Amino acid sequence: MRAPLTVLLESAGLPAGPTEPLYVLGSLALAGWSVSLVWLGVALALDARRTHRVPGPPHPAWVRPVS
Fold first, then answer.
1. Is pLDDT above 70 for 31?
2. Which of 7, 23, 56, 60 keeps 20 to 30 A from 30, CA to CA?
3. Measured over all CA atoms, what is the biggest interatomic distance in the chain, rounded to whole angstroms?
4. Which residues of 11-45 are buried (b: 16+ CB within 10 A; e: fewer)?
């Protein structure tokens, strides 16, 4: 069973082996996508550590008036 892209490339006379430009381009795209996922994970982890904020004053509607 062969992939449709391989069939199309072979019918056009283009080889589709692991040393061909489309394979290299796909590998580079996969590597870039993987790096971006790691980058996102690190950014989210660092952001989660810095979100310890001091709470602000309460909303006036939730505060009882001082008598």
1. yes
2. 7
3. 89
4. eeeeebeeeeeeeeeeeeeeeeeeeeeeeeeeeee
Q: Give 15's Cβ-side CA count (13 Å radius).
A: 6
Task: Return the pLDDT at 67.
Answer: 65
CA dist 23 and 9 (Å) reads 12
**CB neighbourhood size of 6 (10 A):** 14
Contact 6, 16 (CB under 8 A): yes
Is residue 10 a contact partner of residue 16, using CB atoms and an 8 Å limit? yes
Q: What is the DSSP letter of 42?
A: H
Closest-CA residue to 18 (of 26, 7, 8): 26
The amino acid at residue 23 is Y
Closest by CA position to 10, among listed 24, 22, 25: 22
What is the Cα–Cα distance from 7 to 59, expressed in whole angstroms?
Answer: 66
